[in-house]
Design a protein that fits this description.
By secondary structure, the protein is an alpha+beta fold. It has one domain. It is built from seven helices and 16 strands. The longest helix is centred in the last third of the chain and has 14 residues.
Length: 273
């Protein structure tokens, strides 16, 4: 399965230099409605997403919206681009997993100083999926978050899996043919990742949602598989100038010389204004 990402030349440079894909907070995506779908307790500020498309055919609206007036690039990976490595520490709280665990985030990235990332990505086959476009999306996530409170002041939370959140959009976005990866993260425990924090993580997550205390970080960066990065295809935007093409080819020569640079199939077919 090929995945395509339309973006600017500047973002291409950042991706190649860092060898990372950036997941941005759901509240920052272009569809404002997505951040308003979660009923009384909003989970949108706790979700981070990376948006792609599976459409092989070049998409004029995507070129226009995401590549600075069709002067950016389309990055193509042959598969899900993330780098799965063996975790150096086990995640004891993950049920149903035995033996070695492989993850696109290291243990220290999952349990970092800013946030705790729910490991919904351990099964690569279930990480990411095609968006579902519906006439009315408002009813899909009203019950996504259910909170109950205990006499001792603690709280319990029932929450859909991160892989089952933020996967519906209004059908007027259908032109995107989007394939999305989602991460769910909560603020790091105030006491650090000691045993007490693990014992109370469920309550900590519930209280974070109840009080609307989301992680401070606006994004989460995830490593790209080096093998897949070497074999990317970079398609130049239909209106890319010669100087912009030179910049793109220079970036490719520096960071992944085995990659391909191709011209858009729309080159010469769109009149500039």
């Amino acid at each position: 399965m090929k995945l395509h990402h339309y973006t600017t030349i500047e973002t291409l440079a950042l991706i190649l230099d860092s060898s990372k894909i950036r997941f941005n907070r759901l509240t920052n995506v272009d569809d404002i409605q997505e951040a308003e779908l979660y009923g009384k307790y909003s989970v949108a500020p706790f979700l981070y997403v990376s948006c792609w498309t599976t459409s092989e055919v070049e998409n004029i609206p995507l070129w226009t919206m995401y590549t600075a007036n069709m002067k950016g690039v389309r990055i193509t990976f042959e598969d899900k681009p993330f780098f799965y490595q063996k975790l150096d520490k086990p995640l004891h709280f993950v049920q149903g997993h035995t033996g070695d665990m492989y993850s696109p985030l290291t243990y220290d990235q999952i349990c970092n100083e800013q946030c705790f990332v729910i490991p919904n990505f351990l099964d690569k086959s279930k990480f990411g999926g095609e968006m579902q476009y519906v006439p009315d999306v408002t009813d899909y996530y009203k019950e996504a978050v259910k909170l109950t409170f205990n006499p001792d002041g603690t709280a319990n939370v029932e929450l859909k899996s991160a892989n089952d959140l933020a996967i519906h959009k209004n059908e007027y976005w259908k032109f995107q043919e989007e394939y999305r990866f989602s991460l769910l993260a909560f603020p790091a425990p105030p006491t650090g990742y000691d045993q007490s924090a693990w014992d109370n993580m469920h309550h900590h997550s519930a209280n974070s949602i109840y009080h609307g205390v989301c992680p401070d970080n606006e994004f989460i960066d995830v490593d790209i598989c080096p093998t897949l990065l070497r074999s990317i295809i970079v398609t130049l935007g239909p209106l890319t100038t010669f100087s912009e093409e030179v910049m793109v080819r220079s970036l490719i020569d520096k960071y992944c010389p085995e990659a391909k640079v191709e011209y858009s199939s729309l080159k010469g077919m769109i009149r500039t204004k």
